[in-house]
């Protein structure tokens, strides 16, 4: 009898051990999925997923998309940008006001702005990291998003590559148009116009910071520190550089381009106007910057 029982017990123990091993694997996989990192945010350390799978980006969505972040919710303005259309297929449009919609999306990470309301409530839904607009320059902002998504190396590698490429392109452009040639970035509105400094998207960071191109003195005086200056159509010639980057808003009346005020501007007469789509240029993320760098390289050099 003992000879029968012992082999039976041995087999039973092996079966039980096998079952135990079978249960351990999913638990280990779950543990890996649930791993977190500590991100040092503006308001202090925040425990966030090491590999977030359901990100809601109320701000900085383009920066997240550039790092292939798994976005399930995005702000309305980013959603209208034609550059992100493919990446945002199937992604829900949400706002900080619609907490129910955010809850339904079951996020594991929320990215917001410090100016937004409901930050405490958002943090109850999922770990929430808030950034202050303009506190970081366009390159540092991408690196911070890289840190947040546990992809710092990818972000820093892009910064190094883009900086080198933009500087080289700037040297080639200055060699062609002259070191003293000026460039102004002008955008059309419903009844007014805007001219920009060196850190207000629309390619301004590339043109003035990375490429080292010059802005007209009046633009420097009125828009450099403020970031943007509003003016009327009658004064368009006063803000025009030797070259104009025209941020054309397709949703407003652009018939001013048919007026004498516009067509008598030397840059317009010489065909030195580079047109960009406002909707595709209001961010300073890698996707937008690479797109605009190609536009500027093509327009200035070819």
UniProtKB/TrEMBL annotation:
Domain Fe/B12 periplasmic-binding: 54-302
First-listed, main subcellular location of the protein, grouped into a coarse class: other
Swiss-Prot/TrEMBL keywords: Signal, Transport
SUPFAM superfamilies given in the database record: Helical backbone' metal receptor (SSF53807)
Signal peptide: 1-24
Highest taxon above the source species: Bacteria
Locations listed in the record: Cell envelope
Family, per entry: Belongs to the bacterial solute-binding protein 8 family.
Entry-linked PANTHER family: IRON III DICITRATE-BINDING PERIPLASMIC PROTEIN, IRON(3+)-HYDROXAMATE-BINDING PROTEIN FHUD
Name used for this protein in its record: Iron-hydroxamate ABC transporter substrate-binding protein
Organism: Planococcus chinensis
């Amino acid at each position: 009898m003992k000879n029968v029982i012992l082999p039976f017990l041995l087999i039973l123990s092996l079966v039980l051990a096998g079952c135990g091993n079978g249960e351990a694997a999913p638990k280990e996989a779950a543990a890996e999925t649930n791993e977190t990192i500590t991100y040092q945010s503006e308001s202090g350390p925040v425990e966030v997923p090491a590999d977030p799978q359901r990100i809601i980006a109320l701000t900085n969505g383009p920066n997240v998309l550039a790092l292939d972040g798994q976005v399930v919710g995005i702000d309305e303005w980013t959603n209208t940008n034609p550059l992100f259309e493919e990446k945002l297929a199937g992604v829900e449009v949400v706002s900080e006001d619609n907490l129910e919609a955010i809850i339904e999306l079951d996020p594991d990470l929320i990215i917001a702005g410090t100016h937004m309301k409901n930050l405490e409530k958002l943090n109850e839904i999922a770990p929430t990291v808030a950034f202050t607009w303009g506190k970081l320059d366009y390159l540092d902002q991408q690196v911070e998003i890289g840190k947040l998504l546990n992809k710092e190396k990818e972000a820093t590698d892009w910064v190094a590559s883009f900086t080198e490429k933009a500087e080289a392109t700037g040297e080639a452009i200055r060699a062609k148009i002259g070191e003293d040639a000026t460039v102004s970035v002008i955008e059309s509105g419903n009844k007014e116009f805007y001219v920009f400094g060196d850190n207000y998207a629309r390619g301004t960071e590339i043109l003035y910071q990375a490429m080292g191109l010059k802005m007209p003195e009046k633009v420097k005086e009125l828009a450099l520190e403020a970031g943007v200056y509003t003016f009327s159509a009658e004064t368009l010639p006063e803000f025009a550089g030797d070259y104009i980057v025209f941020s054309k808003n397709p949703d407003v009346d652009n018939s001013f381009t048919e007026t004498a005020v516009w067509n008598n501007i030397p840059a317009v007469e010489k065909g030195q106007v580079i047109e960009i789509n406002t909707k595709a240029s209001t961010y300073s993320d890698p996707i937008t910057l690479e797109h605009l760098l190609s536009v500027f390289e093509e327009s200035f050099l070819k």
